[in-house]
Design a protein that fits this description.
By secondary structure, the protein is an alpha/beta fold. It contains eleven helices and ten strands. The strands form two sheets. The chain has an eight-stranded parallel barrel with strand order 1-2-3-4-5-6-7-8. A two-stranded antiparallel sheet has the order 9-10. About 3% of the residues have low confidence.
Length: 272
């Protein structure tokens, strides 16, 4: 009986994860009159015929999942990944990384890659602000991911030039992210290690599950094709209101930097 009860419990969790993306639409139709007359931002402008669709769009945005594929070393693969619906492409500018972008690409190559609906993210680790901004400008980057030990003052300097994704390495407790609230556009939570990312391992998502960060964040750390359900469950939790994107890397490769395009496509399609 105990095992049967556990089975029912996990089945209900699965159903919740499946239905959660549809909940804003269900809520909109079930409470149409109230939303249209009370919550609609355009209720005083009936000629717009909004009828609360503004409210619905905000709610749908909270359930949408976006995707970042990091460790790109090949522009043809970057183009293919962009075409599959990834909103972010990550180029690593950390020379110690196995996926160091400049080992196979030039800044001119990266600058010439100009996807329509995908942001180019530069990943840096404890780089000088001057060199970082120079590289980012020459490569035509859209965003900067700070994956090292950069403090709030450093982040503020970069944030003045580019939107910043500040990385926090998670071990047993939630890192102190509040210091970076005003100097980063996004957070990213990755697995703690002596290295700066690239562990291929999860951290315990239960650590962040109940927390509101009040800022969009990326989930990283060894995410693979078998994590779809776990991500959907996390998205349905309190932290899921801020979970904007998942960060894919080593589990979607045939070798470091060589991406498995079909596997990435399969993963993304699981969320559509």
């Amino acid at each position: 009986m105990k095992n049967q009860g556990l089975g029912i419990f996990f089945y209900l969790l699965y159903l919740l994860a499946m239905v959660s993306p549809l909940m804003p639409i269900i809520e909109y139709h079930a409470n149409f009159n109230y939303i249209a007359t009370k919550l609609c931002e355009n209720k005083d402008r009936p000629y717009l015929e909004c009828n609360g669709k503004c409210y619905l769009q905000k709610q749908l945005k909270q359930t949408k999942m976006e995707f970042k594929v990091c460790g790109i070393t090949n522009i043809n693969q970057a183009e293919a990944i962009s075409s599959q619906g990834a909103q972010f492409i990550g180029f690593i500018f950390y020379p110690s990384s196995k996926r160091y972008a400049l080992s196979s690409l030039s800044l001119e190559d990266i600058a010439a890659f100009k996807p329509t609906n995908t942001k180019k993210v530069g990943v840096f680790v404890n780089e000088t602000t001057e060199k970082l901004i120079d590289i980012a400008t020459k490569a035509g980057l859209d965003m900067i991911q700070l994956h090292g030990d950069e403090d709030a003052s450093y982040c503020a300097t970069i944030q003045a030039a580019f939107p910043v994704i500040k990385v926090f390495r998670v071990s047993k407790t939630i890192p102190d992210f509040a210091l970076f609230e005003n100097v980063a556009s996004y957070y990213l939570f990755d697995t703690d290690s002596a290295l700066y990312g690239g562990t291929g391992q999860h951290f315990n998502w239960e650590i962040i599950k109940k927390t509101r960060f009040n800022k969009p964040f990326f989930l990283s750390g060894g995410i693979g094709i078998n994590d779809v359900h776990g991500i959907q469950v996390l998205k349905a939790a309190n932290a899921g209101k801020d979970l904007m994107a998942v960060d894919l890397n080593s589990k979607f490769e045939t070798s470091p930097g060589n991406k498995n395009i079909e596997l990435i496509k399969t993963f993304i399609n699981e969320f559509i």
